[in-house]
Amino acid sequence: MFCDNCGAQTGEDERFCGKCGHPLAQTGESRPQSSDVPMPTSVPLPGGDGRPAADPITGGRPEQAASAAATASVPAAQQTLTRKQIVLTIAAVVAIALIAAAGMVITHRAGLWGAKTIPDVSAIKPAEGKKLTANVVAQQLNDQGIKTEVKKVYSGEDAGSFAGLDGVKSGDRVGSGQTVTVNESMGPGVPQGTVGKTAVDIVNTLKTMNVPVRYKQVIVNDDAKTKPGSVVATYPNDGAAVADKKTGIAVGVATKGDGIGYDIIGTDKNQAKSTLESKGYSVTLKPKFSSKHYIGKISGSDPAPGTPLESGDSVTLYYGIDASQTKTVFTGEEGGQKIMANPGDFLTGTYCKSDNTTCLTLGMEKLNSAGDYEYLFNTADDADQNRMLISSHAYQSYGAPPEDSSNAGLLINGDTGAFELFPLASATGDVYCGDELMAGEGPVGCVNGEKVTGDGSSSMSSSGLTRRMDTFYTYFPVGSDLNAVESAGYFDADALAKAKKQKAADTSRPFIVMRDKSLYGKAETEIADASRSDPNPFIPAVPGSGKTVRTVKMKPAPSNDSVYYLVENGGASLDWDSLADADVKGAGDSTASSGSTVSGADAASKKIFAELAGSQYVFSSTGDGSEYSMMALKSDGTFSGTTYTADLSDPGYSVATAPRKESKFSGRFSSAKKGSGGTYTLQCDASALKTVDGTHAISAGFDPCGEFTAYPAGTSYDTFGTGTKSVLLSRGESESGPKDWLIVNRGIADDSIPGSYERIKR
């Protein structure tokens, strides 16, 4: 194909000549071959060849000129039509594009494609009688084409309720591939990651939990390691749920000061002892079963870590031990002979399930306040002799050492490092008459399930006796041979098979397996009077009995879901009630909801408290000594103590010999000011007072918890009311007056015995 204008060769699909730019006829169009005017062909033309002669000037022939003129007129028409077509085409394309764009905008905004708009979730209504849950909101969003995921978080809403959207809000647009997180409330708790943040940064978050929040000063010694004002501990622990909405949340705020620094945890035991001794404290090191990373290091203290101290105060530091020391801590010595030592403070502490929903606490208590021995109890039990926890058939000086054959059948006798804990009542048979324990007391029998007392002149037969399954614990320190215990058939086979399908217990932490009596079909059996001395089938063995006993197997078997782990460090290790309040900006509203003030005592009050501080104040609420209280008052105004009440239910006991029930109390004086005659007026903070119950508050002398007066030594006997005079009289101080500071509760009538605590040790 060639250009009609210049004759250059062109392509089939080209519309314009690449050489001269002339429009080209397209394929399928006819090209003009001659002029529109017919030429006469019958007349011979000059030239001899039948064609017209050439033009003498141009040299062109007539037919060439005519052809050129004819062809020149066609491209001009074609060029005009093409421009119109182009304009029309462009206009049509633009119109179509505009229509399409408008449609896209309309459908996009309608959510038919692309990004979606989050609807107003507050308008979502659950079914009648149902609460708005995260799943309901998620389903509503899914129905509108929005992808969702449900995440559990702590909040002030009830557990299971909808707790908001994470990172987005109603009206926001989200992409088609974006997933919206819908929060489901787990109830109030301490969000993971709270520890380590600055206290002021977590105030608003904790306010949303709708529970009281207390901010407490926790002493740290190395402020380069732990920044003052940062959160070092919480109760419940970081990431745990609130167990008691009335108690709420406690936050430990790092405070530079003198005392047992919270940062002592995890340090070398000998170095820690040396450091505290250099500050004037009396330090004792004691072993305690602890997690793997605390072996040989400080795992706790008494007073608790973070507690302020004064020079000369005594401190016990606990360092971690493992299963290799089990027999060592259970072995004592008396008269040059090895004996079985009682379970001691190497076991004390709080133990909780992995989800922190269920806990138990082991603590040391005295049966008789005048005695020298303390015994291990589950603190949920009464401090009754039959409830003390032991690991062999006997206790105190009567028990043979762990390796003695009399302990055969008990884990303490083996080499696994594990051991059992069970009440003394179990070792004596767990025999009951009705609902009363037959503890081997005097001439007592049982007739049809009711206790009867004889005169001792003849033996008594009994009927209606039963043997009951009691509380039972199996303890596994770090390094215990758990596999050996399991392989020996110690645990019920079905229970063990179930445990093996669950997540394994964390053996880097000490844990307890507590018997679950609900897993047994029979937890009680009737026995004949003659079989009272038979071995107890509800404990693994009866040492020294010489009888073969078919004992029940332990249920459950250990798994991460069933065991109770020792809670170390964190909030459980602090004595919150003894700590001064921390002044945290913005925390006023949240702390006020708990009834406490935010800041600690003022400087003037602290000076008075420092003068009054004493490790022992004593108050006897009865004239015969059957009930009295001991209290320690610290220089920050906090106090703690124990009320000792003689159990005179057995006529064989006197006030001096009766076992004592111990009831602990604690609180704080929020302020102090000078009074007349060298006295001080103290204000007791009722919101901080903790007693067993209202009756205990009375016997402890803190009902009401209001205004107290501190009287100096030598105050005239006649200054006091009748009740306080009787206290001084019983102490032989009717002439001299009190020998040291005497703190008296002014809210009790003069004819009653008010709380009258006299300092006997600074």
UniProtKB/TrEMBL annotation:
InterPro entries: PASTA_dom, Zinc_ribbon_dom. Pfam families: PASTA, Zn_Ribbon_1. The keyword Kinase applies. Residues 27-36 have a biased composition (Polar residues). The chain crosses the membrane at residues 86-106. It comes from the Bacteria. Residues 255-321 form the PASTA domain. Residues 22-71 are annotated as: Disordered. One of its GO terms (molecular function) is protein serine/threonine kinase activity. This is Serine/threonine protein kinase.
